[in-house]
Specification:
alpha+beta; 847 residues; Immunoglobulin-like; 5-stranded antiparallel sheet
Length: 847
């Protein structure tokens, strides 16, 4: 009872403390007095002083209030003070309790309410489900999530229906509590995060509590940061597609990620980014780079039998140290096992991760990893060693850059060439003052005219000729390059090549559009080589296009007179020219003429037979070496006796004229037939080619090489027999072309070794026959533009099937075999070529 009375007295004192100002007539000071008192009571260290102050003020106010009370109430309170429960005491007690309740109500109203906003932050690629609750104090339990799945979240939502004011389920990002008492509260957030892709897979659960003070009439915001620190990774380890019994799994460089696998998958966590997953079991270690880009669970399957990911194998003592991160110990174990390369590779990566690049580069080099070593050497500015390593690794671009940084321009140019960066190579060679290789690099860069200009500036006309020959007809500089090339040919004495180039220009531009000065130069060369008819034709074209062209009319008249005089020397009348009455041969009529002479039908007076007589150009008489060679070769060829070879009867000299006689054929050269028909069918080409191969095989057995097989030297008789002509002339032509004005075309059929003046054997004839077969089935030769000799040496010809439909694969393979650049790679003999052509012909006949 006494305790109850004390409490009542205190409540009364508090009531008096609140109501005293009102009783005293100072109502406007009550809120201020209450606020001051409440703020004082909130400070625990000031509690003793506040209590004394409260009691003193309560005593003074209580005395004042007591004196203002009615006399009956005063008596009741006095009885209550001495525990006298009379009627007046009980009434006073009730009044005191009522006043206490009013005081408590006013106290709560004075405290007030506020709003509380709870915000939950996490990555936008995730979705969250949380239950948010507010309490007067913390739970005092471990921070263990309870809402860890969608099922648990639904259960929480159903259980929270009766308590939504302070318990909000199914919150995603933000929730607000309205009218919360202004005091210190505890906010708890319990839930989980999932991926936005759907499904029930939980990325990570979360539980967190925070204390917050709510102020009267204010809105307070509290934030929870639930950004995951790691993304989930599930690792399964297999051995030949079966789960391993035991394995160790870790992320390289993170010992806290170490896990032991015993059949079932294990879970790891890793931040977003690149990580190396290390798996060890038995005698091997596998390593795989993982790119973690999202918080979606990553499933990784590692099969320890896949050699692409194996770091090392065959060394059980090295497995645990490597997975545990003790790389030097693993390397020592590998070295003791004899696996030096693997040991150096481990140490190289170990030191590279530790930014010890010098040591790492040495180990990479010892491990045979030249590319990695080269990059580290480049970072260390060791350019010369880096260049060597890049070169060994086959990275010629970087090797060139390193050689250039080291100041070795010649080596840099070589590397640029190997990398096919020819312009850069040319720049390096220019700085190194290496003209030949600068020109070669420019040629390969596809700017031969620029290469020629460089050579001409250095007065190297030999190099200039080679470069100018590469300028194609479609090039903008073709015409200017052709003029320079013609000048260069004439400067070097290659008048026949100059004439051939002029013909090419005219053929490319057309007679009616070719430059007049070019046409005029051709006419001059033709005139010098005794080709009067063609020279007249060129001059007539010039006069037709420009009648005022200097001296054109006079030159035409002079050539006509010369032609008439020449015809008078070859009339069939006896006693004129070199072949007079005393001559063995009687000229009957002219049957053809070309750059290598005039062919007549003649009668052998001694043997009484009609022959074909070829009168060789008059300028041969100025070259006794060529004549001697011709006579030797012709007499050797005269011993050939084969169905597919034109029989050579005699070779000799009549006065100042050199000639050969052979059997007179009825039919047409294959060149003329091809010009008329365009191309031949595969079967016909195979049949004709086999006859030519038979004739060549016979000649090769007699140690005689033709050297000039082409359609112009193959004659198809009326009896359907192929005849090879001009055995014995090729060597003479080769000798004469070095210093005469004999006009010859571009060597479209010439083997690579022959085009550079090297030693040739029977395989050069096989190459030329391959070109001929190509021309028969396609209607053109493989190379007919630019520097033909260069193309024969370096350019792969187009496959015939690309231009000819229904060409048998065997035929195309045979042609490719015959056109091999290296003589050792060609068909071994003409007999083998004939055999394969016969097989092709028979197969096509059966079809």
């Amino acid at each position: 009872m006494r305790s109850f009375c004390v409490k009542s007295a205190l409540a009364l004192a508090a009531s008096v403390f609140v109501l005293a100002p009102l009783c005293a007539g100072a109502a406007e000071d009550a809120p201020r007095a209450w606020t001051e008192a409440w703020q004082t009571l909130e400070d625990p260290p000031a509690w003793q002083q506040a209590r004394d102050h409260l009691l003193e003020r309560a005593r003074v106010i209580s005395s004042a209030v007591f004196e203002a009370l009615p006399e009956e109430t005063q008596r009741g309170l006095s009885d209550l003070a001495i525990l006298d429960f009379s009627a007046e005491g009980r009434l006073a007690l009730i009044q005191a309790l009522a006043l206490g309740l009013v005081a408590l109500l006013l106290l709560r109203l004075a405290r007030g309410r506020g709003d509380l906003c709870v915000s939950i932050e996490y990555p936008p690629e995730l979705r969250g489900t949380f239950t948010v609750a507010i309490r007067k104090r913390a739970l005092g339990e471990p921070d263990t999530p309870r809402v860890t799945s969608p099922v648990a979240a639904k259960r929480e939502r159903l259980g929270a229906r009766m308590a939504r004011r302070r318990w909000h389920p199914m919150v995603a990002h933000e929730t607000r509590f309205m009218g919360v008492p202004a005091r210190q509260l505890c906010v708890s957030v319990d839930g989980f995060l999932q991926t936005t892709g759907g499904g029930d897979a939980v990325v990570t659960p979360h539980f967190e509590e925070q204390t917050v003070s709510v102020r009267r009439g204010r809105s307070v915001r509290v934030e929870f940061d639930f950004h995951p620190r790691e993304c989930p990774i599930e690792v399964r380890v297999l051995w030949d597609r079966r789960p391993v019994a035991e394995a160790i799994v870790a992320l390289r460089g993170r010992r806290d990620s170490l896990r032991y696998v015993r059949g079932a998958p294990v879970r790891l966590g890793a931040p977003r980014g690149s990580h190396a997953l290390v798996v060890g079991s038995a005698d091997r270690v596998s390593e795989r780079v993982l790119e973690i880009e999202s918080f979606d669970p990553t499933s990784v399957v590692v099969d320890l039998t896949h050699r692409d990911e194996i770091v090392f194998t065959g060394c059980p003592p090295a497995v645990e140290p490597y997975v545990f991160g003790d790389v030097p110990a693993a390397a020592r174990a590998l070295e003791a096992d004899g696996q030096d390369e693997a040991a150096h590779l481990l140490l190289a990566r170990f030191h590279q991760d530790g930014n010890r690049d010098e040591i790492a580069a040495t180990h990479f080099e010892q491990a045979g990893r030249h590319l990695e070593a080269a990059r580290l050497r480049a970072d260390l500015s060791d350019f010369e060693k880096s260049a060597l390593l890049f070169e060994r690794a086959g990275d010629f671009d970087n090797a060139a850059a390193m050689y250039r940084s080291a100041g070795d321009l010649s080596r840099a140019g070589e590397m640029f060439q190997r990398a096919e960066a020819y312009q850069s190579a040319a720049e390096c060679f220019k700085e190194a003052d290496d003209l030949p290789r600068q020109v070669e690099a420019l040629e390969r860069a596809g700017v031969p005219f620029e290469a020629a200009q460089v050579a001409i500036e250095r007065d190297d006309w030999g190099r200039a000729i080679r470069s100018l020959q590469l300028v194609a007809a479609k090039d903008d500089a073709y015409l200017e390059a052709s003029r320079l090339l013609i000048d260069a040919y004439q400067r070097e004495g290659h008048l026949d090549l100059a004439a051939a180039k002029i013909k090419e220009v005219i053929g490319t531009r057309g007679v009616e559009h070719a430059p007049l000065d070019v046409t005029d130069r051709l006419a001059q060369l033709l005139e010098e080589s005794d080709d009067i008819e063609t020279a007249l034709e060129m001059l007539e074209i010039i006069r037709g296009r420009d009648a005022t062209y200097p001296n054109v009319a006079t030159r035409i008249e002079d050539l006509r007179k010369r032609r008439a005089a020449d015809r008078g020397t070859v009339t069939p009348s006896v006693g004129r020219g070199d072949f007079g009455v005393e001559s063995r041969y009687e000229i009957l009529e002219e049957v053809g003429r070309g750059g290598m002479g005039i062919v007549f039908k003649a009668r052998d007076r001694r043997l009484g037979r009609v022959v074909a007589l070829k009168k060789l150009p008059d300028n041969l008489r100025n070259h006794p070496k060529a004549v001697d060679l011709f006579l030797r070769e012709a007499r050797a060829a005269a011993a050939l006796n084969h169905t597919n070879i034109v029989t050579l009867f005699d070779a000799g000299q009549e006065g100042e004229t050199y000639y050969i006689t052979m059997e007179l054929l009825e039919g047409a050269p294959l060149q003329k037939i091809l010009r008329k028909r365009g191309k031949l069918g595969a079967r016909d080409a195979a049949r004709l080619g086999s006859q030519v191969a038979n004739g060549l095989h016979y000649a090769h057995e007699q140690k005689i090489i033709h050297r000039d097989i082409k359609t112009a030297n193959l004659f198809f008789t009326n009896s359907k027999v192929m005849k090879i002509m001009d055995f014995g002339l090729a060597k003479m032509v080769e000798e004469v072309r070095r210093a005469t004005t004999v006009i010859g075309g571009t060597p479209y059929y010439m083997a690579p070794e022959q085009s550079v003046g090297g030693q040739v054997d029977h395989r050069a004839d096989i190459y030329a026959l391959g070109i001929t077969l190509f021309e028969l089935v396609t209607g053109r030769v493989p190379f007919d533009d630019g520097d033909v000799a260069y193309h024969h040496r370096h350019t792969k010809p187009t496959d015939p099937p690309e231009t000819v439909a229904h060409l048998p694969d065997g035929f195309a393979e045979l042609i490719a075999h015959m056109l091999a650049k290296n003589p050792d790679d060609r068909c071994g003999s003409a007999a083998r070529v004939a055999e394969r052509l016969n097989e092709i012909s028979k197969a096509l006949s059966q079809d």
